[in-house]
Amino acid sequence: MGTGSWTTFAGADALDAILRCAAKLGIPYVTFYAFSTENWNRPKDEVSTLFDLMLKNLVDKSFMENDVKFLLVGDLENVPQNLREASERLMEQTKNNKTITMAVAFNYSSRWELAHAAKMIAKEVKDGKLNPDDITGDTIDSHLATCMMPNPDLLIRTGGEQRLSNFLLWQLAYAELYFTDTYWPDFNDECLYKAIVDYQGRQRRFGKTGEQVTENK
What we know:
Shape: globular
Strand order of the largest sheet: 1-2-4-3
Distance between the termini: 23 Å
């Protein structure tokens, strides 16, 4: 499941509540979009505040208490050193946690991710490690920043926005999309339940007809 941003103090509180709720519901993966590569264009003071907030949340003891595995995905080379090191420590500390995996997309955009994957694949071809004719969708999957996770089943977009904003474009190819007018800081357990009930009422076809899906149940 992919969902909203935690780049405000209230947003960070919402993240914690939704993470706990998702764990209770048995949702194994939740991905939050925290900071896009385009967010560098925001005022410097705001960017600095976002970094401080992110760093504060990375030392939260609740990751271990709630058996949360933490992952950071994005262009980490350009992330401030203190934030990168804190993220690496937390990923190492939580690597064996199993209840739920929380991935945070930070300094991330799908265009960056796909271009980065293309460069890695091109290098393997150049080095003779990969035959161009053998390149498939699975090849691209394995070179994405999210290669350690399954593709999302459900995307929740808050705040009345109805766009993907350069988020997991490849991975969301067959995801169900849920849009709500509720802003992320106000998104609570009840909102999550409502989104999941809506999701449960949909028929996921993956290119098949409705009749084929029904027959295979």
